[in-house]
């Protein structure tokens, strides 16, 4: 017969609650009694109280759920995601709390069940479009939800529009007028290729919508109509997808003099596509990314820097120890346009 809490209690001659305290509240027992209970448990082959049942009794799961829509492996390979999760993990560790990664590849019943059944004390939303039904399921749980990519009562993020507006103004000052934008989540089927985006307000993805809005506003202020801008959908946020999307811009005639991307990974793919065509970044075609991951500096790529590590830390603090003042529960972090060699004046006669 499998040993239970009662089996250990009977062996030591104490109550069930005392045995339970040896695992969950050791400060309530003398070191000698606790060691006696643990020794008896080891002899009997008892591994401890069921963690799920214990969390139900205590009202605390001891874990933060992280929601994102990419493959699970991206959490360990995407440089920005790695930094964000590192910051979140630091705060979780300080609070003796774990992380539960909840990938939502498809907005289907499986995703809904994953959110509904996750044994967590709250969710941090890393990258989930607002239209996902899984988001409704998260809110319906009645536990804290910290948004990092669209507004909510608990929010940590950046001014996306101002960030890309600064990048767009940089291109306008350099004289560029033939421009392509590479972005994911601007096509419902996430295909690779040129798409029509007559109104950025109609985009469902908060990040894509805000970043394209910033570029649109900068271009409009310089007299460049949004209808003249080429918008290209990438099938995912990776270097390979960025290169495939860039081909739809670089193989056009006339070719754009600048290609901007909504992430550094996509922009690095644009640089790969330039190299494959013997085109020089910053001279033949200017390129701008977003995030400032380490590879961006190594590639001398102009980009928008945002604080991934600090963003993760603040997300954790907001979830585990939210401020009393509601105004302090919405944190907007600074960004910086980092100009490097991948941007330069528009080629003579290009416009």
From TrEMBL:
On the tree of life, the source organism's domain of life is Bacteria
Asked if the keyword Nucleotidyltransferase belongs to this entry, the reply reads no
- Record-linked CDD domains: HTH_LacI, PBP1_LacI-like
Q: Which parts form a coiled-coil structure per UniProt?
A: none
Question: Ranges for the HTH lacI-type domain?
Answer: 3-58
Under Gene Ontology molecular function, one entry of this record is:
DNA-binding transcription factor activity
Keywords per UniProt: DNA-binding, Transcription, Transcription regulation
Provide the protein name. LacI family transcriptional regulator
Native species: Phytohabitans suffuscus
């Amino acid at each position: 017969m499998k040993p239970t809490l009662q089996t250990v209690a009977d062996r030591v001659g104490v109550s069930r609650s005392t045995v339970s305290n040896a695992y969950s509240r050791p400060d309530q027992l003398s070191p000698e009694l606790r060691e006696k209970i643990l020794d008896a448990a080891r002899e009997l082959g008892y591994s401890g109280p069921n963690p799920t049942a214990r969390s139900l009794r205590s009202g605390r799961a001891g874990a933060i759920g992280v929601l994102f829509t990419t493959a699970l492996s991206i959490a360990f390979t995407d440089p920005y995601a790695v930094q964000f999760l590192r910051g979140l993990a630091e705060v979780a560790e300080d609070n003796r709390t774990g992380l539960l990664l909840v990938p939502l590849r498809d907005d289907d019943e499986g995703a809904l069940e994953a959110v509904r059944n996750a044994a967590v004390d709250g969710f941090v939303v890393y990258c989930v479009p607002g239209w996902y039904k899984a988001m409704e399921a998260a809110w319906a749980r009645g536990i804290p939800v910290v948004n990092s990519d669209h507004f909510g009562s608990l929010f940590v993020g950046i001014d996306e529009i101002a960030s890309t507006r600064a990048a767009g103004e940089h291109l306008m000052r350099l004289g560029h007028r033939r421009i392509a934008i590479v972005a994911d989540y601007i096509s419902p089927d996430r295909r690779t290729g040129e798409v029509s985006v007559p109104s950025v307000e109609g985009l469902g993805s908060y990040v894509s919508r805000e970043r394209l809005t910033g570029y649109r506003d900068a271009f409009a202020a310089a007299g460049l109509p949004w209808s003249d801008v080429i918008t290209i959908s990438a099938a995912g946020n990776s270097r390979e997808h960025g290169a495939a999307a860039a081909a739809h811009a670089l193989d056009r005639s006339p070719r754009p003099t600048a290609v901007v991307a909504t992430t550094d990974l996509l922009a690095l793919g644009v640089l790969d596509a330039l190299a494959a065509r013997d085109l020089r970044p910053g001279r033949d075609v200017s390129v701008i990314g977003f995030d400032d991951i380490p590879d961006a500096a190594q590639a001398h790529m102009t980009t928008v820097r945002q604080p991934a590590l600090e963003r993760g830390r603040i997300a954790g603090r907001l979830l585990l120890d939210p401020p009393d003042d509601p105004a302090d529960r919405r944190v907007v972090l600074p960004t910086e346009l980092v100009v490097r060699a991948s941007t330069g004046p528009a080629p003579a006669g290009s416009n």
